[in-house]
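call fold(seq) -> tokens
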Amino acid sequence: METNSDKIRKERILKFMRSKEYTPMKMKELCILFDVPKSQRNELAKILADLEAERKISVNRAGKYIAASRDGKTAAGVLSCSGRGFFGFIAQENGDDVFIRGEDMGTALDGDTVVAEVFDKRGYKNERREGRVVKITSRANTSLIGVITEKKNKLYKMKCDNEKIYAKIRIEPRNMAGAEIGDRVIIEITRYEGYYLFGTVKKILGKQSELISLTESIIYEHKIRTEFPKSVLEAAQKTPSEISPEDTVKRLDLRGKNIFTIDGDNSKDFDDAVSIEKTETGFILGVHIADVTHYVHEGEALDKEAFERGTSVYLADRVIPMLPERLSNGICSLNPNCDRLALSVIMNFDKDGNRLGYKIHKSVIRSCERMTYKNVSAILDGGNKELLKRYKSIVPDLKLMKRLSAKLEKQRERRGCIDFDMPEVIPLINERGEPVGVVSEERLVSHRMIESFMLAANEAVAEFASEKELPFIYRVHENLSPEKLAAVREFLQKLNIRLVGRIDENNPLRPKQLQSVLNRTKGTPEEKMVSIYLLRSMMKARYSPECSGHFGLAAEYYCHFTSPIRRYPDLAIHRILKEKLSGKIGKRRFAALTSFAAGASVKSSEKEIEAMYCEREVDDLMKTAYMSRFIGSEFTAKISSVTSFGIFAELENGIEGLIRLETMRSDYYTFDESVFRLIGERTGRIYNIGDTLEVVLVRADTESRQIDFVLKEDATKESIDRAARKASVKVSIDRLGRPKKSGEKRKSGGRRKSAKNKNYYNKKSKGKSGGKRRGH
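ret:
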């Protein structure tokens, strides 16, 4: 039974712990502070245990005692940890996020859904709320990826690749599954003990330095699904290899039309085809998209897996498809000389490219040719007689398409569509998965032509859905936020560039005003920096059940309709369109589709972002690995951007790296923010955007995917040798290795070292290995 003296002591201890002077302490520290003799330490331990049982205090991960909130306030949400420190936040809808110190997280990890006890504000400058995790509602991580670093006290240590995971990871020898020190592995979490997390090795990806293990790490961190479940593969196997006569019933038969596909050289999945006819008033354009939903049925295994994946992922060395190959390259692909089911959008345009009308049909088509972007461009240039002869049956159609495409581009230009026409630097990968070069992908006339036709179809379908008030998944893009608009104005002002036209509450920013800036900077040294800054200032395009328009395209109606093989929203709206074309959608079905469209919009947006970052990071990795063989080499570069911490320089091959300010030894340089330049205090030397430099490559680090240069005049043999030695232990590009299963023996290769890239919303092109770059 608790005595009065015990109550008094408990109240004193609690009052002290709640005071501003108190900092979390361990039991031993409290004994010293309260001058508790050894004979009475058990009594203090009992008091602390009682307070903890009453939830008035708790013990953090460091074993220190901390007081609970007096008012009992809590905050629930997802814990987001920092990759640059030992802390995190729980985001709140009202914006009053709760700051969580690392030691107050308990066993929670980044991404976990938690409940935190909120403390009084502690008098910090920003008056932020702080909290302590008291409950973990759901775990975001059941497995982790990292490198086995050492063995200590009979346990192996693993350093997690994700810097936002703070736990100290330990693996017992019996759970190593053949992994060795230096291996990158995937572990399954088995238990949590304070700061410590224990796991079992489930897969060995390769040595830390191997390029393939670094790639697998990126794929894993972005939660990209790489293997199809058995049920999905079995369902795919049951799909037919040819269409049946019954499939063509109640479909518009277009098999007699000149219909063909235009894709990349290495593409294997053809989900869009085009046709054109000349009329007295203008043109009839047909955009024919594979009817994937005829084989991927709602709620079944193939559909559920596609929903979870959201999109195909196009990496430098592979494609991770949304659908199994039997569908994507088989019955769903508009292969030449094969009857295929499709959804066709037939659009009428006048001679100036104004759309006069459109119709959407369930159809059956037969592609007569499999064209490539390069061949189509060569034909339209008129210089390749062999191609002109080989494809003489469709040459007139291609010339008509070129004419219509130019008119559609003019129409978009008039309404203010923003065109970030920046070349894309793509790593070239050989059959062994090694980066052997980079190429700046040029946008050919054929790319722009197909892009115009797909945009036209997407707009027509979105307009149809909006007019019919269908539950739908639209592609939306909002105007700049007031904060970002203010930042853009300030940035352009420093470059002496003005946003033309009035902008206020009654006259919001129009896309045409940003396109005007791009037009005025085209061909200037500032062109690339301005394009990148404007692009990064834009809101991200996303999927939404509401039709709110697309700011970047200056389009009132927009959706993604043309790629159902590789994007789930396209597949989903095909299903909705077919239901509408076949008859009315009942009330219950309407309600179900409305709910589905809302959930699918959120899910698909999330998966698209993960895929985009995964693609970028793998591209960066490959570029850096390629450049690592040139450590110590001299290059000519142009300044692409100037910052307070250094100069970004771009090589002739399009690869960009940083010249850090601390390496510029010839002078002390200050950053003139008003005009984005560096000025030497002693020499007066100035570095401006667009200046040509001679640089030496000193660092290409695949772990961080960063490339560093130094100015040639500042390079020394010692600094280059030191950087080269450091790079040489990072990644092997001669013997890359492949992932192996647990316990499998593997030869380890040599070693070596990674870079930068960008991706932008306003592009539809099909990449090197059948890949299609993200856009709109």
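The longest strand covers residues 196-207.
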